């Protein structure tokens, strides 16, 4: 069986949404910052052996949407957010604050539905000490009650794990 699911990445300017997707789909990273204009779109496939039959595979096609943070794209973003099956809210670990997070949660729930699951990606952890990352993660998990992935698009840490986790939740 083939199923298709839509995953939307959200978060403020320059937090690393595009870098996470590029790391995941292409395995590369660039230090230069190219602002996303509007929306970008990527596709990846997962297969898992079917439980019922040994030789047929289940295929999950993940459509990953990269939604620009800028206010000028707000109306566009709400349109593109609809029909999302899963959200990833990306946070820059150097500027973590609830007011950077809650509006994105509200956004996805408003436009994609109140039950759409999401995770937080605490990105750019390569720039912080391990203890700092651990403390922020714990705080976020308590405050928002969702899974927090400590990611670095630069080193690739936890990027595959995060998408694997999402895929398993979407199956
Ligand atoms: N050190 C470090 N830098 C990162 C990481 N992820 C992204 N960056 C850098 O942060 C800057 C912004 O990254 P983008 O991926 O373009 O950010 P974005 O969220 O797509 O930004 P918009 O398209 O403007 O919404 C770039 O200079 C990246 O190289 C990371 O994990 N570690
Ligand atoms: Mg971008």
| Gyration radius from CA atoms, angstroms | 16 Å
The run of helices and strands is EHEEHEHEHEH
Distance between the termini: 11 Å
Give the strand line-up of the largest sheet.
2-3-1-4-5-6
Strand content is: 25-35%
Shape: globular
pLDDT < 50 stretches: none
Number of strands: 6
**CATH fold name:** Rossmann fold
List the helices and strands and how they pair.
Blueprint: E1 2-10, H1 17-26, E2 39-49, E3 57-67, H2 74-81, E4 86-92, H3 98-112, E5 118-123, H4 130-144, E6 148-150, H5 159-170
Parallel strand pairs: 1-3, 1-4, 4-5, 5-6
Antiparallel strand pairs: 2-3
Bound molecules: guanosine-5'-triphosphate and magnesium ion (MG).
The site of guanosine-5'-triphosphate has 23 residues, from α1.
Question: Could you characterize what this model shows?
Answer:
Helices cover 35% and strands 27% of the residues. It has 171 residues and is of the alpha/beta class. It has a six-stranded mixed beta sheet with strand order 2-3-1-4-5-6, sandwiched between helices. Guanosine-5'-triphosphate is lined by residues 11, 13-19, 30-33, 35-36, 68-69, 123-124, 126-127, 152-154. Guanosine-5'-triphosphate (GTP) binds at residues 11, 13-19, 30-33, 35-36, 68-69, 123-124, 126-127, 152-154.
State the gist of this model.
With 171 residues, the protein is α/β, with parallel strands linked by helices.
Task: Provide the descriptors you would attach to this structure in a database record.
171 residues, alpha/beta, Rossmann fold, 6 strands, globular, binds guanosine-5'-triphosphate, binds magnesium ion
